[in-house]
Each structure stands twice: as C-alpha cells, then as structure tokens.
Amino acid sequence: QVQLVESGGGLVQAGGSLRLSCAASGRTFSSHVMGWFRQAPGKEREFVAAISWSGGMTYYADSVQGRFTISRDNAKNTVYLQMNMLKPEDTAVYYCAADRRPLGTFSYYSPGEYDYWGQGTQVTVSS
Asked: What are φ and ψ of residue 48, in 5° steps?
C-alpha cells in the first residue's frame, strides 16, 4: 500500500515556475513507477510525465516537453515535478500516481493503469 500527498501548487504568472512535490508513504516507494497527471475543469485527466524506479528513464507529454522535469529522491520517498515557462493552459489540478510494474510493461500514459493516487494540488497560471 502506498499513500501519496502532493504539495507545491499555487498561483503563478505566465512564464513563471513552480515545483510540485509528492511524498509517498511505505517502504516500497523505490519499486514504484511514478507519474504526474493533470485535470483541467471539464476535461479528462491527462498524462504529464513518468519516471522509472531508478529515475533513469523519464517520459513527457509533448505539451510539456522541454518545460517540465520529473525527478525522484528515493531516500526521501518523494517525486518532484519542476515546471518552468508556465502557460495559462497548464492550469489544472495536478495528481501524482504510482504503480509497481516496470516502466515499459504497461501504458504509463494512461490514468487507468496506476494503482495509487494522491488527492491533487491546484496549479493556476494567470496570463
């Protein structure tokens, strides 16, 4: 069982930066693939980024490639999402998610594939 708690959301102007954190409970954090997803009002939850157990493999949605960076610190049971050059269209509730399967063995970009979810943190980017 893994419990996830996101933090770091807030209001920022376009072009600004935020760093989201997702703290995980449980001793098996380092064996979970971690993902970030987001959901804007009236829209479906969409993939943002994913990272492998070791942090050696990362994947990004095209819309955030080059602006966002996912990373993890297994000693701290925490995964991060550094968001730079934010745009108003990045406004959404951001969720972290975890799954025990190795990256490459499941559809990491599909929300339905993940076993555990946090409660979400709001990110609002003003123009």
From this structure: -115, -55
> How crowded is the C-beta side of 121, counted as CA atoms within 13 Å?
19
CA atoms within 13 A on the CB side of 14: 5
Instruction: Give the separation between CA 26 and CA 113, rounded to whole angstroms.
Output: 20
Query: How distant, in Å, are the alpha carbons of 28, 90, 96, 101, 106 from that of 21?
Result: 18, 17, 9, 22, 24
- Provide the pLDDT confidence category of residue 30 given band limits of 50, 70 and 90: confident
What distances in angstroms separate CA 20 from CA 5, 77, 90, 120, one per listed residue?
10, 14, 13, 10
State the Cα–Cα distance between residues 14 and 24, nearest whole angstrom.
Answer: 30
pLDDT class for 26, splitting at 50, 70, 90?
A: confident
Name the 3-class secondary structure at 81.
Answer: strand
